[in-house]
Amino acid sequence: KCLGLSTLTLLRLLRRALTALWSALASTWLWRAPSGAVAKESAATPPAVPLSVNYHFTRQCNYKCGFCFHTAKSSFVLPLEEAKRGLRLLQQAGMEKINFSGGEPFLQERGEFVGKLVQFCKQELKLPSVSIVSNGSMIKERWFKRYGQYLDILAVSCDSFCEEVNVLIGRGQGKKNHVENLQKLKKWCQVYGVAFKINSVINRFNMEEDMNEQIKALNPVRWKVFQCLLIEGENTGADALREAERFVISDEDFERFLHHHKDVSCLVPESNQKMRDSYLILDEYMRFLNCTGGRKEPSRSILDVGVEEAIKFSGFDEKMFFRRGGRYVWSKADMALEW
Ligand code: SF4
């Protein structure tokens, strides 16, 4: 058993070293390449490793954000044991970070489903990083008590600190106060040892907002700022559940928002160009979603054909993943958190 464990540890260390080396080489090649040379290099590119995976296990959500780009087109959720089998396949293929997303992850079994997956990934698969993206409206303290120890990062979506703007976006909290809710979640993260992150989508209705003070006061480990993105079949086009055109902003508007918040040190910007193909996205059937054509085309499920076969159809831009800083300090064990 001891020998098995040390071999596993050695393999993990070797994989990390190779990944770091590949990361350095990939970014060097990319920056040095004259325009048009990238395609030639792809011949020498090794097969993508699913280092960091976003598993959107549900499409159901209690909100109706007008720009949502992963909409409730189905109510399917895999049985827990099948989801675990898929996660094990991903870990065997090199996954180090899993992010659970939706839809709203805390909707399924009032957070028990995602809690069990989080626990499985940390305890059984021993993944260095386990995170969740949530709109934050359904998380209870008892969830942190039971599962907080297994979670590295909780990212909460917050597009505005103004209730009227949240209503316009589709994230109105009714009688609840969004800022108070964020503060409560931040506090629970501190108490239960989870890194707290904020995600914001910049769109027509919040692009002029000054969020400097509120973000600094909440002091997240990362503030991910996305430019509102159109995806055919999700938030634009005849078969879509949303019409997000009225939310879209120009690159210049996005740059202006970033400039106004340049003093927020934890800000991580993500333009449309950086965002589109640099995420490995798994849908509720554990199919990789390929966004290169401007819509989400599914591969076959990793549960049917395995990770290596399915990932070929993911459209994943591994170089852009490293270039946008997709590999960062993502394990809470390596973070200097103040709790
Ligand atoms: S909270 Fe997220 S998943 Fe839910 S509707 Fe809004 S953008 Fe979509």
From TrEMBL:
Intracellular or extracellular location(s): Endoplasmic reticulum membrane
Main location: endoplasmic reticulum
One of the record's GO cellular component terms: mitochondrion
Full protein name: S-adenosylmethionine-dependent nucleotide dehydratase RSAD2
Annotated membrane topology: Peripheral membrane protein
InterPro entries: Aldolase_TIM, Elp3/MiaA/NifB-like_rSAM, RSAD2, RSAD2/Viperin_antiviral, rSAM, rSAM_sf
Family listed: Belongs to the radical SAM superfamily. RSAD2 family.
